[in-house]
Amino acid sequence: MDETGSPEPEERAPRGRAALLVAVTRTGGFAGITRVWTAEPVEDEASEWIALISRCPWDERLDLDPHGADRFQWSIRAQCAPDEEREAELPDRAVTGPWRELVDAVRMWSTGRPQTA
Amino acid sequence: MRHAIVPPYLLARIAATREPHLAHAAAAARATLAAQREYRPTRSRLRLTIDESGSLVAETAPAPDRTIYDAQGRETLPGVRVRGEDDPPTNDIAVDQAFDGLGATFELFWDAFGRTGIDDAGGTLVATVHFGQDYDNAFWNGEQMVFGDGDGEIFTGFTSSVTIIAHELAHGVIEASGGLEYQGQSGALNESLSDVFGALTEQHLLGQTAAEASWLIGAGIFTPAVEGRALRSMIEPGTAYDDDVLGKDPQPAHMRDYVVTDSDNGGVHINSGIPNRAFVVTALELGGNAWERAGNIWYRTLTSGTLSRTATFAQFAAATVATAEAEYGEDSEEVAAVRAGWADVGVMDDGRDG
Fold first, then answer.
1. What is the ipTM, given to two decimal places?
2. From B278's CA, which of A28, B11, B285, B336 has a CA 20 to 30 Å away?
């Protein structure tokens, strides 16, 4: 049930220095179980990730789903440099298009590779 | 031209009867007639039984009208229609589980509370299965129920427990009854009521008393890889799972452990443990079938028309006591049981002083 962890650039990267950090936190849903996925890609992958991140409408403000129940809520945070952090809160219905691509990429990064800790 | 199994004159006769032992049948007939006046094609069934005196008893009961859609792994609603009310079972487990689960929920609401479906007018119950890819959720979108298949690693399909199907349908009933704002304490009450009707549907289906019931929500939803029995335990909130990946079930069982958080609409799926346990304690105090008295009190409170959309736990608790007093009398064991339930979780003082 912890909120997303510290946004500090990580120091334990085993495959070279992480160029950036993207964290996806999913709360709510029928189960009410919070899930957190993070991606910390290295320099070689950075340009693809920065492209993914910049395609997302970070400044768009969306209300929570006004009707219904048991929907997911998403919190997405991207840190491309120590002083450059973006954050967005999204209702489940908004996780489409570029947001969906970014979320899927983070989940794949975090589960598809050996975990660092 | 209306299609009805029971001719209107027979319905009218049954509706008009004053015989106490036919009260249920009379109510059913009145509901059917009332629905027909609105030109709603409400479905009904005729049950013929022989009573103790050997008389033939004709009893009408409304029947559900279910439509199941298949999203085919996409996130577009409603999807492709795959089973209607008159269609036979498909070979798709999720489709048939959803169909049967909606039927079981309809039966509980009709049999226990005399309600016909989400809108109480026999409207179609719509559900979509196979929503999204590896989708770890079931939800109510304001118009219909939606079920994912789970990711196969943590969650199996969300139609595998009737408590989940009934929980989602109950969200529709709550909304149709005036609603409870999905935030903070009123949101946790919304969640708790859905769990209550979810558990009652399973108990009604299995013929379990309050003492026999597991009071688990979503039992069997986890894969064998997860250390957990279910998503929630209404009788022992906070004990449903304790797993390396998922962590420990965070539900409190008492007001002193109320969780303040911005996540999950203010912890609606977390703090629902408190009113959940209040309901179970009430049901266990009364014994027997939980839907008959405890369930009736909770349902009548929800549908009274006077419950605030932003009700707190304390306001809802007071409303259940008022309902119990009105239904069973101020000095009834039902009122004492309701007070005991809310006292157990620290929402009310033990009400011996009235």
1. 0.84
2. A28
> Which residues, including other chains, have CB under 8 Å from residue A75's CB and lie 6 or more apart?
A4, A24, A25, A26, A27, A87, A88, A89, A90
Mean pLDDT of B330-338: 98
Looking at beta carbons, which residues of chain A come within 8 Å of B139? Answer: 29-30, 68-71, 92
Catalytic residue among B130, B167, B168, B171: B168
Q: How far is B261 from chain A (nearest CA, A)?
A: 9
Of B97, B252, B243, B217, residue with least CA distance to B159 = B97
Checking B252-261 for CB contacts under 8 A at 24+ apart, the result is B253/B277, B253/B345, B254/B345, B254/B346, B255/B313, B255/B345, B255/B346, B255/B347, B256/B346, B259/A1, B261/A1
pTM: 0.85
Number of Cβ pairs < 8 A linking chain A and chain B:
83
**Helix (H) or strand (E) run with residue A81 in it:** strand A72-81
The partner residues of A22 in beta bridges, in order of sequence, read A39, A78
Closest-CA residue to B195 (of B158, B232, B229, B222): B232
What's the CA gap between B123 and B77, in Å, rounded? 18
Give catalytic status of residue B269 as yes or no: yes
Q: B239-294: per-residue pLDDT in tens?
A: 999 999 889 999 999 999 999 998 899 999 999 999 999 999 999 999 999 999 99
Domains of chain B: 8-344 (1.10.390.10)
- Would the pLDDT of B8 be above 80? no
Nearest to B182 among A32, A69, A96 (CB): A69
Q: Is B168 a catalytic residue?
A: yes
Among A34, A64, A70, whose Cβ lies nearest the Cβ of B137?
A70
Query: Do residues A10 and A113 lie in contact, with contact meaning Cβ atoms separated by under 8 Å?
Result: no
Nearest to B265 among A28, A34, A96 (CB): A28
**Sign of the dihedral defined by the CA atoms of residues A77, A81, A83, A84, in that order:** negative
Catalytic residue of the set B167, B191, B269, B285 = B269
